[in-house]
Amino acid sequence: MVLSDLPLVPNLLPLRLLSLLRDRGALSRAELADRLAEPRARVMAEISALVSGGLVREAGPAASRGGRRSTLVELSPDIRLAAIDLGASSIDVEITDGRLEPVAAHAEPADIRSGPKVVLHRVNEILEKLQAQGAYQRLQAIGIGVPGPVSFRDGVPVSPPIMPGWDRYPVRDLLSREHGCPVVVDNDVNIMAIGERYGGVARSVGNLLFLKLGTGIGCGIYLGGEVYRGTDGCAGDIGHMQMDGHGQVCSCGNLGCLEAVFSGNALARDALAVARSGTSPALAQRLNSNGSVDARDVADGAAAGDSTCVRLIRDGGHLVGTALAGLVSFINPSMIVIGGGLCGLGHALLAEIRSVVYRRSLPLATGNLPIVMSELGPRAGVVGAAVLASELAYGGLE
After folding, report:
1. Could you tell me the CATH number of the domain that includes residue 354?
2. pLDDT in tens, the chain (398 residues)
3. What is the model's pTM?
4. Phi, psi (rounded to 5 degrees) for 56
5. Same domain for 345 and 366?
6. Is the CB of residue 320 less than 8 Å from the CB of residue 262?
7. If 389 and its partner were Cys, which of 135, 141, 213, 269 is the partner (CB 3.0–4.6 Å)?
8. In whole angstroms, what is the distance from residue 201 CA to residue 182 CA?
9. Contact yes or no for 338/373 (Cβ under 8 A)
10. How far is CA 202 from CA 63, 142, 378, 390, in A?
């Protein structure tokens, strides 16, 4: 075997070093060598290369450890990352520094169905506006999540049911050309899971399910401390698990998918039906006043004691719990985190989900299984997108 036949082993030291500075702040050269468990000479050489590349800088002498004082090293204050979370009905953008602290943010309603040209043009306008306001001079990387299946390798959505016109659209390449930096594209549920694990209630949990309940339903999966995306990037798309073979037609074309029987759109549909029938006085009143009803009206009605609203929430929680119970028995996660817009339905939803999961899954799998609401809430997506952008900028993603 000749040298050229040997597999190339990536140099992960820059990523490990930069991630340590991202998560811990300024550290001395000696501390970096100790924490990385690498020869000091190798760490010093890597730091010098990163200083030359503008990613880190020296930050003065460290506290004495009994001998000659080492020099503190920190991430460059000029590093800027863009984190973008595209929802079915919203655009959220944050500009962060290298430690993922927000520098600027912007959020607005949007309709993902208006197509990639319209939505991405608006994303570019938002970034240009933030740049003009002084949030950044140049971006080191962009992380973006979209509400549909994604080929992580190719940086494109693939046959996304609620995103007409987005199939195979070159999201990564377009944004990269526009902003002159590398771009990583992932499913919105994956970036929410990454965000919650990095800075939320699931910090450092090894085996995690993150369930997003919103316009659509999806599940981010962490196994052994790594996001599991599946062979083609569509792992966790539980919104299209069939729950009722005679149920409503789903956006994917099949019958009775979880997303078709309980999601933001499905709940609004069912709420409208009971409002028109007069079964729910609270929803009938909202319909007469506003001309429409949605999930927030159901939540308000349940809080006011409307029994039909309570039933709608519990029925939805039962369906979600049934789907999760199968995943719990199969994967045996150490935590389930629930996020997305339908979290506003409150404790009745969470209680029903917990009840079904704990009742239907094996006791060994649920004996130490917390099922909790997201700590980051609507910021989970941009936090996760920023984490992915930092890993791309720091050399951890190909």
Report:
1. 3.30.420.40
2. 343 343 444 578 889 999 999 999 999 888 999 999 988 899 999 999 999 989 999 887 766 665 566 789 999 999 999 999 999 999 999 999 999 999 999 999 999 999 999 999 999 999 999 999 999 999 999 999 999 999 999 999 999 988 999 999 999 999 999 999 999 999 999 999 999 999 999 998 999 999 999 988 999 999 998 999 998 888 998 999 999 888 889 888 899 999 999 999 999 999 999 999 999 999 999 999 999 999 999 999 999 999 999 999 999 999 999 999 999 999 999 999 999 999 999 899 999 999 999 999 989 999 999 999 999 999 999 999 999 999 999 986 65
3. 0.91
4. -130, 165
5. yes
6. yes
7. 141
8. 29
9. yes
10. 33, 24, 15, 19
Report residue 83: phi and psi, to 5°: -115, 125
CA angle, 140 then 142 then 146, to 5° = 175
Instruction: Return all residues near 316 (Cβ < 8 A) that are at least 6 apart.
Output: 262, 267, 342, 345, 349, 352
Structural domain including 54 reads 3-75
Token output for 322:
């049934």
Residue 254 lies in a domain: yes
Could you tell me which residues are beta bridge partners of residue 57? Answer: 74
E-strand ranges in 52-96 read 56-61, 71-75, 81-86, 90-96
